[in-house]
Amino acid sequence: TLQQISDIYSGKINNWSQVGGDDRPIVRLSRETNSGTHVYFLETVLRLGDKTNPTLFSTDTLLLPSSEVIINEVRQNPNAIGYDGLGYIPPDLMDSVIAIARDASGPFVTPSIASVNDDSYPVARDLYMYTAGEPTGAIKDYINWILSAEAQAIVADLGFVPIK
What we know:
By secondary structure, the chain is mainly alpha-helical. It contains 6 helices and 3 strands; from the N terminus they run H-E-H-E-H-E-H-H-H. It has helices at residues 2-10, 36-46, 67-76, 113-117, 137-146, 149-157, and strands spanning 27-31, 62-64, 80-81. The protein has a 3-stranded parallel β-sheet. It is globular, with a radius of gyration of 18 Å.
């Protein structure tokens, strides 16, 4: 559940046996604090969306500089848990992805384009593009291309979630 993940990353849960796994220590992996993904995970998962919640990452959480480093550590360390964007998960690790529920009553949902788009996967965020005023010229052309069926198909082919 989101609460269990919050408890893992805040240090309240330190062994996989506490969440039904083997008796092994949990190795927490996170993006570095200057990452938007780190901030989103802190606010949405550790603090469960509560802006008044002061929960922080456990001090023994390993802060890693990139998605690639997190993926490599999860691949090599059976005790590790990490988070990353859906499009960064390589096919050989998709079986290691954890189904998550908002609470113990479920449902437990694995991340996918469909589960993000239907809002059943509880840890997903929109990304935005901003322009200084109404876009024109090449910037407008670029944004229009991004919104096109062709570009959105590329987004889906890369494992990310298209907007349409």
